[in-house]
Amino acid sequence: MLRRVAPPASGDEAAAAGSTTMPEWLETLLSTRFFLACGAHPASPRNECNMFCLDCPSPSPAFCYYCRSHRHQSHRVIQIRRSSYHDVVRVTEVDDVLDISGVQTYVINSAKVLFLNERPQPRGAGAAAGKAAASPYNCEICARALLDPFRFCSLGCKLVDTKTGGRVATVPAGEVANDDAAGGSKNVGGARPQGRRRKGIPQRAPFGS
Ligand SMILES: [Zn+2]
Ligand SMILES: [Zn+2]
Ligand SMILES: [Zn+2]
């Protein structure tokens, strides 16, 4: 596995242009709320804002089908889709503009997709926790169980890794809770402690898939 031993060079990481640099619009994409009705086309049937333009810097980056044909005709536009109320994007629409290596892909409606953001997971007991414990692969950022040997569950978790220059392993598990009130700004999970399991426990994963 590729492990970074040194922090990324200080200063202009984006300009320094490694292949691991994520494009500027990615952060906007990941923080955008999609599937709201378009204010410019309130009465039209296909007015949900599920499009995102890679070429227009815009204060409201999500727009609808009609906006696309009016204002973004010659632009690179990607379409956001939904799976169980989570935003996904098709691999074919982003793999030439984004380095998606390491991100788990899923096949939904016979198309390969990526999740944009980390999905909430039930903690503690329950089916999902059992599944996570049984999976040999986990997201390096949020510890979600993965189906295949990928590093991240979503583009969001990969972005966290890119920005922090790898796993932040210095925060002991007990200290995170105390920090809640202090920060104010949302920490996007970068310092979340990894749920490390004790080594030496034989893992007998049921072969679900
Ligand atoms: Zn519109
Ligand atoms: Zn545009
Ligand atoms: Zn994750």
From TrEMBL:
Pfam families: PLATZ. Residues 178-209 are annotated as: Disordered. It comes from the Eukaryota. InterPro entries: PLATZ. This is B box-type domain-containing protein. It comes from Oryza punctata (Red rice).
